[in-house]
Design a protein that fits this description.
globular, binds zinc ion, alpha+beta, binds adenosine monophosphate
Length: 115
């Protein structure tokens, strides 16, 4: 999709530090890491969020999540990680192309879920 930063990363128009790629997703380093290790697992198909996904998107997202589990040790996340998807305005989603944050490489603090 035009003007989507993650679509541009996926098609190579914008450089990224890529750790993994297959036909469904890429895994890159987050440009502004919020933990010692902070990756973004980005499905290649553009859709904004859970609300916009089709049944096929959901099946493919499941495959991506399974793959994340398989490659986590090779990303230095063998001791565990936090898996986050921000959705919409209240979820503080800033890039409107669904993506999964993988945070780890340290013991993480509790996020601020409360007011
Ligand atoms: P979210 O707020 O959940 O939409 O997350 C968007 C994430 O994308 C943020 O953590 C940003 O630091 C990250 N980000 C934005 N631009 C880039 C980029 N060019 N390369 C890697 N990560 C990026
Ligand atoms: Zn996109």
């Amino acid at each position: 999709m035009e003007d989507c930063i993650f679509c541009k990363i996926i098609n190579g128009e914008i450089p990224s530090h890529k750790f993994y790629e297959d036909d469904l997703m890429i895994v890159i380093a987050d440009i502004a890491p919020k933990a010692n290790k902070h990756y973004l697992a980005i499905p290649k198909k553009h859709y904004k969020s859970f609300t916009d996904m089709t049944g096929d998107d959901a099946v493919n997202l499941g495959k991506c999540i399974k793959k994340v589990g398989e490659i986590a040790p090779s990303l230095g996340l063998e001791n565990g990680f936090r898996f986050v998807i921000n959705q919409g305005e209240d979820g503080m989603q800033t890039v409107p192309h669904l993506h999964m944050h993988l945070l780890g490489g340290q013991k993480l603090n509790e996020p601020n879920y409360n007011k």
